[in-house]
Amino acid sequence: MLKYVYLFLHQYLCYEICLLEATYWRVEQRLQYHKTETEGLIHLYYLQRLQDQLSTESIEYGVLSVRAYFNHDSLCVEVLNARDVIPLDPNGFSDPFVIIELLPRKVFAHCAEQQTNVQKKTLHPMFDECFEFSVTLEQCRVEGAMILFTVMDHDVLTFNDFAGEAFLALGNIPGVDENNTSIDNFHGLKTVELNLMHQKNKNHAILQTLESRTGDKMAQDFVKKQKQRISA
Ligand SMILES: [Ca+2]
């Protein structure tokens, strides 16, 4: 009997210690965030999103198909299509288009974001459009360099609605990855399927830290942009 009481107590204490450790870790992390300047925090946020992309198996917001490679002094991105985009219009469809931007913004400040044409009234848009960005190999190899694809639903009278986002690390695309030989067109290149995501964590620690920086325009603009991407 005593043995079981002992075992129970032991397990209970282990459980309590685990909880304490988790709490301590969260507090420690918050402190770190508060010590990090805004640009660094935004970078951290996107690094986490890139991790989310790798671990997201759910296709509830649809799937985006793209291809990308680097050659000489340009990054070529092809947006092929999307399937099962979420319906955002009263007619049960969306008018999807994709915005393509390079991150971190500090590294790719000279590259304006680009976007596809709007495909009207469909949840399975075919884009088949190519985009070129003037960048160097060194820029593509910066830690955390990535492409952000944002799928939006175009609206005529109101603001466009957010349909989903996806991230692609530049470090391992053909032409940037050291194992790849030189490549100069999309022919034979593997299609990358990216599960579209929404931010599910309404209490994201980085967003909350940035939101508390009330006098910081960069922080406020970023939080405002991200809030539209949090799932309802
Ligand atoms: Ca629409």
Automatic annotation (TrEMBL):
Matching InterPro entries: C2_dom (IPR000008), C2_domain_sf (IPR035892), UNC-13_domain (IPR052095)
GO cellular component: secretory vesicle
GO biological process terms on file: exocytosis
The keyword rRNA-binding is assigned to this record: no
CDD domains: C2B_Munc13-like (cd04009)
Domain (C2) ranges: 55-183
Top-rank taxon: Eukaryota
Keywords carried by this UniProt record: Exocytosis
Alphabetical list of PANTHER family matching this protein: UNC-13-4A, ISOFORM B
Family membership noted in the UniProt record: Belongs to the unc-13 family.
Listed name of the protein: C2 domain-containing protein
Species this protein is from: Gryllus longicercus
